[in-house]
Design a protein that fits this description.
Blueprint: E1 11-15, H1 18-30, E2 34-39, H2 47-54, E3 58-61, E4 75-78, H3 87-94, E5 99-100, H4 102-109, E6 113-118, H5 123-136, E7 141-145, H6 151-155, E8 163-167, H7 170-173, E9 183-186, H8 194-197, H9 200-208, E10 219-223, H10 227-232, E11 239-244, E12 253-256, E13 259-262, E14 265-269, H11 279-293, H12 298-305, E15 316-321, E16 324-328, H13 335-343, E17 349-354, E18 372-378, H14 382-391, E19 396-399, H15 403-412, E20 419-422, H16 435-448
Keywords: ATP-binding, Cell cycle, Cell division, Cell shape, Cell wall biogenesis/degradation, Cytoplasm, Ligase, Nucleotide-binding, Peptidoglycan synthesis, Signal
GO cellular component, one term: cytoplasm
GO molecular function, one term: ATP binding
């Protein structure tokens, strides 16, 4: 771990706990900052805050008192989930106090090269694929960030012989000042999280923050099939490495003659890749490009791609039962993700969908439902999705109470050769705490068959 003096003897407010806040507060304390932690949950119900208190860190819980911002803080480190409309954040910005996220801390202390991965879709799959390829290629990678392990925690253990592979959300990237990955990847840019960012421009700007501090010694891997993405990163100083599923990009990664190439070098045949879905080719190409920049052997890339079947809850193959293949795509919390999942399968598909009602309709799914033989709906959006199914000409539409009930019903209405796909197109919060819980319920129900 590198020593950083950026926060030494500075007054820093850590706003919001969870994993990132706890790690950030402890790390700042080690870096000799004067740390105050503020969390909404009362101290009696807040073991994380109690632990920090025992470390000698000042803790204020139970509310977010606006008067805190009169205490002369020089930095605010906020939980990524806290919106910028929060009164304390608004007050900090009015006072010109930098509002950062813990990935900034991770960058400042990491002795390892950082590879930052962002985009609307495909971040987790790309991050996991790249980690596995680097590991097989002897690069000693560490995995961190929005994928589940706090980056500033992993960075404390990272040495110069490691590579830190970090999945980054737009929420995290809004809060950076010096953060500079040696390799940055933007998988794609679509419309998302407008309730948080306020506009498409602000959302995209948060994503392209990943390259704002890169120099000519760094690399930016981007989706060359998206003109708006190319325009959004036109200011970058990094060396741009494109990837494309539709054309040859001779200075990057692309598909030619049913194989993946990098800069005119054959890497792997598409027949050797087990990860389903055309959309996953984007993720694979971006991971391959990063690997080749680190001279990972083609044998390692091929080895991983020949066994990597997907990340849990993301078009994850669960099991085959009497010729029916079950796939868990619970991470599909919007129509865009469900479109990609439906596009991944060419044969008869039974779609399980539904969840939290955010006020949108689902008619944009209609062109992608041509292979859906039965639609099973649940949750708050059940009737909306049923109406979309009727418009798509689906004859068999069934409403059930939840995912667990949907699985045996799907099996009853299927035949050998069918795909049974959970891809809800909705958030899970009407019935489940997280999309992971929803996916696990689906997996359990499949195994019960």
């Amino acid at each position: 771990m590198k020593s950083s003096v950026k926060f030494k003897h500075k007054k820093v407010l850590v706003l919001g706990l969870a994993k990132s806040g706890v790690t950030a507060a402890s790390l700042l304390h080690k870096l000799d900052a004067f740390v105050t932690v503020n969390d909404q949950k009362p101290l009696s119900e807040n073991p994380a805050a109690q632990g920090l208190l025992q470390e000698g860190i000042k803790v204020i819980t139970g509310s977010h008192p606006i008067e805190l911002m009169d205490e002369g803080f020089q930095y605010v480190i906020k939980n990524p989930g806290i919106p910028y409309t929060n009164p304390l954040i608004q007050k900090a910005l009015e006072k010109g106090i930098p509002v950062l996220t813990e990935v900034e801390l991770a960058y400042l202390i990491s002795e390892a090269d950082m590879i930052g991965i962002t985009g609307t879709n495909g971040k987790t799959t790309t991050t996991t694929l790249l980690f596995e390829m680097l590991a097989d290629g002897g690069q000693n990678p560490l995995i961190a960030g929005n994928i589940g392990t706090v980056a500033s925690e992993v960075a404390q253990e990272a040495g110069p012989h490691n590579k830190m592979v970090v999945e980054l959300s737009s929420f995290q990237l809004m809060g950076i000042e010096d953060f500079r990955p040696h390799i940055a990847i933007i998988t794609n840019l679509y419309e998302a999280h407008l309730d948080y960012h306020g506009s498409l421009h602000d959302y995209w700007q948060a994503k392209v923050n990943i390259t704002k501090n890169q120099t000519e010694d760094d690399f930016l891997i981007i989706n060359d099939d998206q003109t708006h993405l190319i325009e959004a990163v036109a200011h970058t100083k990094a060396q741009v490495v494109p990837f494309s599923t539709t054309k040859e990009v001779l200075d990057g990664a692309y598909i030619k003659e049913d194989a993946i190439y990098f800069k005119d070098e054959f890497i792997v045949s598409l027949d050797d890749i087990v990860l389903p879905g055309a959309h996953n080719l984007e993720n694979i190409l971006s991971a391959v490009a990063a690997c080749k920049l680190y001279d990972v052997p083609n044998e390692s890339i091929k080895k991983v791609l020949s066994v990597f079947a997907g990340v849990k809850h993301r078009t994850q193959f669960v099991k085959e039962v009497e010729g029916r293949k079950f796939y868990n795509d619970s991470k599909a919390t919007n129509s865009l993700a469900t479109k990609s999942a439906l596009n991944a399968f060419a044969g008869p598909t039974i779609l399980l969908a539904g969840g939290l009602d955010r006020g949108n309709d689902f008619d944009d799914l209609i062109p992608y439902m041509k292979n859906v033989s039965t639609l099973i709906v649940f949750g708050e959006t059940a009737q909306k999705l049923a109406e979309t199914g009727r418009k798509a000409g689906i004859k068999s539409i069934i409403t059930v109470d939840n995912v667990e009930k949907a699985v045996p019903v799907a099996y009853e209405h299927s035949r050998a050769g069918d795909v049974i796909l959970l891809s809800p197109a909705c958030a899970s919060w009407d019935q489940y705490r997280t999309f992971e819980e929803r996916g696990d319920m689906f997996i359990d129900a499949v195994h019960m068959l």
